[in-house]
Write a structure and sequence with these properties.
With about 210 residues, the protein is an alpha/beta fold. It has a single domain (about 5-205), classed as Vaccinia Virus protein VP39 (Rossmann fold, 3-Layer(aba) Sandwich). Helices cover about 40% and strands about 20% of the residues. It has nine helices and seven strands; from the N terminus they run αααβαβααββαβααββ. It has helices spanning about 5-10, 15-30, 30-40, 60-65, 80-90, 90-95, 130-140, 160-165, 175-185; strands at about 50, 70-75, 100, 115-120, 140-150, 190-195, 200-205. A seven-stranded mixed β-sheet has the order 3-2-1-4-5-7-6, with helices on both faces. β1, α4 and β2 form a beta-alpha-beta unit. α3 runs parallel beside α4 and α7 (about 130-140) packs across α9. The N and C termini lie far apart (about 40 Å).
């Protein structure tokens, strides 16, 4: 495997030196996409938020700014990402407003009906079975809670399809495929948004 391919494979689960470099680029590299996705949210004043696949921690911090009354939780299955996210959100963690831990979306370590809002930015590409993982998100959401998925790929754009060929285990989903899996997982209402100029999608589902 060439060095470039090894680097891009860090997107899935950052590890080692290359993983640290990858995580260091996440907050700035995905900021515009994440901000656009968050702008689609219709939920008001969530009190408890979970960001799945929190990466470098930038989205946790941004959610904290938008919803200052919320307590934030972030999980990632990469220990490097967890370390970076903790560092980025250190002040909020010290104030008891943010908690970051290592975890797996296919088996979340939270009780039923725990969160008002769950977010997933640039991460469902690597989840081990959408419907199974979506059922776990559905389980930890409160009744009426919202799940927001934000992707830079709409599942059809050439650039992302090329990345699919070099990043092990990556799968770019269309909004329709995500919607179908969410409905099978038990979500009551599902709505998708497509950026007018870019292949970005956001899918919002309510329990």
């Amino acid at each position: 495997m060439g060095l470039l391919r090894k680097f891009f494979n860090q997107t899935r689960k950052p590890e080692g030196f290359l993983g640290k470099i990858m995580v260091s680029t996440m907050n700035s590299g995905h900021r515009k996409n994440a901000d656009w996705g968050i702008s689609q949210l219709r939920i008001r004043d969530p009190r408890k938020i979970l960001d799945v696949g929190c990466g470098g921690g930038g989205n946790l911090a941004e959610l904290g700014k938008i919803f200052p009354g919320a307590v934030l939780y972030g999980i990632d299955y990469s220990d490097i990402s967890v370390e970076a996210s903790k560092k980025y959100n250190q002040k909020a963690i010290e104030k008891g407003k943010c908690f970051v831990s290592q975890g797996d979306v296919s088996s979340l370590s939270f009780e039923n009906d725990s969160f008002d809002l769950v977010t997933a930015f640039e991460t469902v590409y690597f989840w081990p079975g959408l419907e199974k993982c979506f059922r776990e998100v559905h389980r930890v959401l409160k009744e009426g809670g919202v799940f927001l998925i934000v992707n830079e790929s709409d599942g059809t754009d050439k650039t992302s399809k090329d990345f699919e060929k070099i990043i092990d285990g990556m799968k770019n989903y269309t909004a329709e495929e995500i919607e179908a899996a969410l409905k099978k997982a038990g979500f009551k209402t599902v709505k998708s948004f497509h950026h007018e100029k870019k292949p970005w999608i956001a899918v919002e589902a309510a329990k």
